[in-house]
């Protein structure tokens, strides 16, 4: 796979500085640049690597172009341009087109002839799979599922019944969608399962990372709108709604009936409590405990961060748990100081 | 699927207000109620939707019955009654009875003729599977496993060797039970695997959510007692014991050798440290760090919650990490105030 | 399976106290010791069980040997010695040698004749699998994968393309290695996938727990060095590097491009932020938020721990969020006290 620089940028809104016929055979980082490869400069911390780069070309912003010793692809949004150029060098798909004979398919299921289904998959009844969908080995798809055009399921994905997947959705290995939400009614100390009757609706251009779980709705559907990007090991509880183009990093736990707006960003390992609402454009930094709703766009955080030596941590914890005493000491001081000032003032008068 | 209201409540301890012959064809939420469907009122926040509901009937508590404009199912425990009525409208099982020819079965394994096993499962040796068990596609079951009557394994579940599953247990997709606990002995800077020889015992009526992992015991068995409900993406370490009818929400991490009592509740994304003990009836709110044992029933929490704008968060963090200085300032004040009061008092005497 | 005590310790650097011909048929805990079994004393809390043990023998340190009423295996590192002795009693592998006929194998793939591959696996093209590797049922292995000698994949593991696994690596069920890292470029409010072109390199003697996910690198490879032990439900983001003989407990989230040194220990449910660096020998206690780099070996922690009754927790939270006011009150006090002291001093002079 070799491309000229001109071919790589043909459809992109960029300015080429240097030789458009230069051949590129892959991408590299700017810290470990290699002759014949194209690299990119996005993080200012790595600007120091630019003057000595050996790459064939660098994708960068206009203000870095002057310092570039090799061919430059000058872009308003270099990371976006990098994403388009890197796509020329992606890995080959693991399995060729067509359905493997070991695949088991239910009744009244429609599979477009352009679909690829790898070995040992099981597809339920009344399923509809659109054109150019690829399904990795060992996937299990329930009844009444719909998968839109050009979506890709990695190996070992489970879609339960009544799951609807949009177009160009990317689902990583180990993902489970549409399993029962966590609903139990307590009667005399015993928990009774509350049937989870809803499905899951996944919009177009959604991406879902490995081993993430999205529960079905209790009555209505759990909804992931178009353009949402979910990382790995995320838990999405029943009835959750995630608005369009929201991005959520790994290990986030979203409890049932939470409603997350459009264009939100949630940092890794954060937790969103049940029934909480985040407005459009809410940004939550990593490791936050979102226990209350957010009404205004902006950046929000919670808790205590910052690593300290363990002994200091223990002292900090003790201080925190004695805050009530500290407040009491301040209160006593306030009273004493007030009294003392009064005495001093009184005496001054006398 | 249509039922009369009388049929739906036949075995339930409820009072019918209205027309018992009314036909019901599904369930709906009270916010989005639909003619011909039955709904429920449990959360007082939704009481405002009751007067205008278009549902065929509403399951509710006695004090709400007067405001109900349609048929009412009056119950002491409306959510429990809803769980029983909703069960009439659950999804159909994905696969019919019997064992698919692609299933591979080990030696000396007994499978009841009423069992359903979907394609591409692998069952080990000396396994015993009781009546009416259903096993979804792609499950892998090790040697010396027992599965009790009417238990249901969703697709893609792994049971390692020596796992015992009770009756009516529900296991969601991606669950792993009985894998090695995390035990390593350090010898000269290198970690050596400590063989994990125990199994896992799962009681009757347990429910386990998607992608949850339950490790085997190091020597004795890890034990999950009857009626325990575990949500998704939970980690249960080796040697853990969870008492009967305890309920644990998603993404909880339970470290090795923790002992959790009966009738406990643990909120989502909480962590339980190793060797910690929770007494019966301990309730842990979500996102807690359970680093110490709990001896008395009650509701417990830890840490800091509450989202604030990021700038305020940074200031709060700085204030927290300077608590030692604040305490020192208060101490200095206390000394100065004491001295000043003494001086003032002394002078008053003179 | 029965062994003499002498046979069990033949290759170990220990001292035998008692009868070397004593027969041992398994291991037990010291709390629940059984005749004919060997047990161990490591945790000083369990020393009280030693005088009354009914076990055939006890593995212990020299200073406990005097109190041992039965045969004793005296060791410098009793837990390590236990790990070697317990290995005599491990479970039998689930599947016998050879490749099941249902396994699908791609082109130009080399599989050593000593390899065991259980049913319903799918192996890609240009894969190399070394001697004595065992692969559990339902595993899916992509293209261009290498698996070193004597490594063991449990059932239902996914290796994406370009993953390299060292020798004697143990991978538990549900693990996903080499899936896309979480990289998206925002252009006009829409997230565009950034191709993830790197692979994953796993060194020798690594262990990876159930349902853990290790993402591939964005450009270069994600790297797990030799001897690393990862527990279950861990997330390892793209470009992460984990140094040799580091051990990480369950549910830890490691964000992209974090660099973790050698011989580190990270406690369960901790989170490591992106691009953070931990030096060799850093120890992070459980439930920590590692938001900054660590430059010196030692034990580090963050945040607040300690369970308190919920009402106290709410008060603590309110106090924390009012720290600014408390600091202001102290500041006011300081000014007033200073002024009062000045007044008193001035008057004393007059």
Corresponding CATH superfamily of the largest domain in chain A: Hexapeptide repeat proteins
Structural class category of chain A: alpha/beta
State the largest interface: B-C, 81 and 79 residues
Largest sheet data of chain A = 11 strands, parallel
Beta-strand content of chain A? 25-35%
Number of domains of chain A: 3
Could you tell me how far the N terminus lies from the C terminus of chain A, measured between alpha carbons in angstroms?
98 Å
How many DSSP E strands of chain A? 39
As laid out across the biggest beta sheet of chain A, the strand order is 7-10-13-16-19-24-27-30-33-36-38
What is the class of the largest domain in chain A in the CATH system?
Mainly Beta
**Average pLDDT number of chain A:** 95
Helix content of chain A: 10-25%
Overall form of chain A:
flat
Radius of gyration of chain A: 28 Å
Oligomerization status of the protein chains: homotrimer
CATH-defined topology of the largest domain in chain A: UDP N-Acetylglucosamine Acyltransferase, domain 1
In the CATH classification, which architecture of the largest domain in chain A applies?
3 Solenoid
